[in-house]
Each structure stands twice: as structure tokens, then as C-alpha cells.
Amino acid sequence: MAEDIKDTKSSNQMWGGRFASGPSAIMEEINASIGFDKKLYAQDIRGSKAHATMLAHQGIISVEDKDKILHGLDTILSEIESGNFTFSRKLEDIHMNVEARLAELIGPAAGRLHTARSRNDQVALDFRLWVKEELQKTEAALSGLIAAFLDRAEEHADTVMPGFTHLQTAQPVTFGHHCMAYVEMFGRDRQRVRHAIEHLDESPIGAAALAGTGYDIDRHMTAKALGFREPTRNSIDTVSDRDFALEFLSIASICAVHLSRLAEEIVIWSTPQFGFIRLSDAFSTGSSIMPQKKNPDAAELVRAKTGRINGSLIALLTVMKGLPLAYSKDMQEDKEQVFDAAESLELAIAAMTGMVTDMTIRTDKMKAAAGSGYSTATDLADWLVREAGLPFRDAHHVTGNAVAMAEKKGCDLAELSLEELQSINAAITADVFNVLTVEASVASRKSFGGTAPSEVRKQIAWWRARN
Ligand code: ARG
């Protein structure tokens, strides 16, 4: 320990041991956001260009100064993009880093850019622009995942598999139908994304510190230039609110939960015990000690990313919950949560799209499992209601007796003889065998949204027209 302790003359004796230059260094470390908000450089420059253009248009700054500002900002953009920009922690954040460099490049005209603006509306603008672009990327990624599922569903509209409740075999379904369940979930996620884009599509710039400004600015002009539908209507709300970030995180969390349930199914399906699917080599790994193993690591990691994404939502909800209006520095903690969740979600959707596209469906295994576990028992009961006129409760009881008999004999329902079935209920005829196969069972479930291949094909067509 002792050799780690630096000369603490200039830093606090009690707690400043690790800091070279006293409390101001600690302040800099807790205060600076440049380490992560430099990600907003393009949005910051775009916003500043729109603001400067508006200021000149309104006669608040001169056209010459505006031209210098725009030119300087373009230079900074290319410096950052080519890796030739030195970010400074002393300058705290992306906004001040850009502005300080602008002053170096164009001199006093740089000082006019911040007229009628505050970092409070500036950061609200930059972050909204970033989240909007991220939502647009998420929308496209979800469309890709839906397309992958539609292809697999079409290919396997007739493939039978066991449907489960409580992870116990329930009734036969088609794999196409199961795929389409995920299409519905990701379709709703995409709708949520679209709504969120609508909700945040208002421009914050011009709200200034919190009260608006006395300059004759044109907020409709900047809103239009930045691709927003309109300016925000309340300057206090504009700089206080982060619900667009919370909405992104909520949507991301719900979507991550969907992805995680799918990941869990992939993990289960790819076990030798189930064997419903084989993952491609591209999306699995081997074991360093057990040569026979093929592990679904990508699916497991998608499942785990849900923890991070949900954690980000809780973190930001907690940051925001006690803040008085308007801006407080607490809100600087919004960005890392959103950046991390966005990166995780993008990766998870991409990995899942790859897995769904590449996995091999083992139709033989699915079919064998579909027929086991008395999965057509409900079909027998329904037949008794339909053909023999029994009340459903009685039919349920008769079917229970048939299942017990088959269990005792160690065979399937379809393997019981007609005589055996008739010994349970005399009204049963040979026609019953037409519903005891899994194919007949799924084909009969033609109710709207049901598992019959004909229904599944209708749902696929509905989605194809909307994807
Ligand atoms: N870096 C700050 C943030 O991300 C920018 C806004 C600072 N505003 C202020 N009044 N200190 O929130």
C-alpha cells in the first residue's frame, strides 16, 4: 500500500491519495462527460450550424460571422472524423470542446455562436437527434429480423412441432406458427419505436437555459432545418425532460425481453435432448475440454444482454425520479445508459437475425416430439363433442380414460385399437383416427390466428404486405 501513496501535499490528506492535483482534479473527474458525450459530435455540429444559420437569418449575428462559424464547424467535423481532434477533459463536454476549437480556428466570431442558446437546450437537442437516429436504426434492424422470421415461417408452414404450456407438451402446432408469434412481438416492438419517433420529433433548441430568450429567434426555422416536425412548446419542459431517453430504454427493454425468450428457446431447442434445431457453426462455439460440445453462446449472450438493457432503464428512471425542474447535472448521467443499451440491443438483434436465418430445422425431431405426450388428446375430446354429441366436460373425462389406457399400454392414442377405444365409450367410430394424427390436428385449427398451415400462410401474407 505505502508505495502507492503519492505525495499528497496538493491533494486532500484524507481522500485525495489517488489524485495528482487536489480537489479540483476530483471535480474534473466527476464533472467531465467528454469521455462519453464525444459520441454526440456530429449532432452537436449539425445543431450549431442550424442555430448559426438562423441567428444570421434573423439579423442577430452578421452573415460574415455566420459563414466563418459554418466553415469552422465543418473543419472541426472533418478533424474529429479523421481522428485529428484533441478532446480535452478540462473543457468538460462535447459542446465546450467544439466551441473552444472553433475559437482557435476562427477567432472572436466563435463567441457569437452561443447567442440565444444554453448548453441546456444544446444537450437536449444533441441527445434527441442521437436517440432519433438510433430509433430509426432499430426500426430497420427489427424489419430485418421480421423478414428472417417470415422466410422461416413460410418454409415451415407445414412443419409440425409440439406446442407447450408450462414447457409441457400441450397441443401440436406448426413451426411456422411459432415463428409468426415472434413476428407479432417484434412487429409490436417496431410500432413502439415508430411511436417513440413521433413523440420525440420536436426541436429543443431555442429553449435556452430554461426560460426561452429575449432575442428574436425563429425556432420553427431551426426545427425544420434539423428535420423535426415542430419546436417544443414549453422551454422549462424542454430542458428538464428526458422521457424520450426513458422511452427508448423502455422499448429496448421490452424488445430485449422478447429476444431473451427466443434466446432461451434456442438454447433449449438446440440441446441433444430436444434436438429441434442445429445452430450454424457461425453462431456457436466448441468447448475447450469436451470435444463433442457445440454451445449456443450467441443465444446465451443475447439472453444476458437483457440484464444490461433492463438495468439501464432502471438506472435512468432512478436518476430522474427526484429531480426538480428544470435542468440538474444529474441528467448528464442519461447518456451512458442509453449508449450502452443501444449498442447491446443492436448487437442482440443482429445476432438473433443471423441465428434465425442460419439455423437448421430438424423437422423429423419436431414431428416425433409433436406426436408424443398425448398431444392430440384435445382433438379426441373435440371429436367426441362434434361427432358423438357429448358435452365437452364428459368428452374431457372419456379422453382422460383413453390417455390412462394408452399410458398403461405404453403407446400413443392413435395406437389404441378401435375396440379399446369403444370399451371406454361406445359412440367412438373408426373416423376418430382421422383426428388423432398431429397433421390432422394442426390442419383442423383453422380459427382466425390458429395454427393450421392455411391460417399461418394468411398471416405471413398479411405481414409481408407490411414489412
Ligand atoms: N454535459 C452536460 C450534460 O450532459 C451539458 C449541459 C450542461 N449544462 C449545465 N448547465 N451545466 O448534461
UniProtKB/TrEMBL annotation:
Task: Give UniProt keywords alphabetically.
Answer: Amino-acid biosynthesis, Arginine biosynthesis, Cytoplasm, Lyase
- What is its subcellular localisation? Cytoplasm
Q: What is its EC number?
A: 4.3.2.1
Residues in Fumarate lyase N-terminal domain copies: 17-311
Q: Kindly state one GO CC term assigned in the UniProt record.
A: cytosol
GO molecular function term, any single one? argininosuccinate lyase activity
For this protein, the record's Pfam families field holds:
ASL_C2, Lyase_1
Its recorded reaction(s) are: 2-(N(omega)-L-arginino)succinate = fumarate + L-arginine
Q: Could you list the residue ranges that cross the membrane?
A: none
Q: In which pathway does it act?
A: Amino-acid biosynthesis; L-arginine biosynthesis; L-arginine from L-ornithine and carbamoyl phosphate: step 3/3
Record PROSITE patterns: FUMARATE_LYASES (PS00163)
Q: Which residues form the Argininosuccinate lyase C-terminal domain?
A: 374-443
Kindly provide the name given to this protein in its UniProt entry.
Argininosuccinate lyase
**Organism of derivation:** Agrobacterium albertimagni AOL15
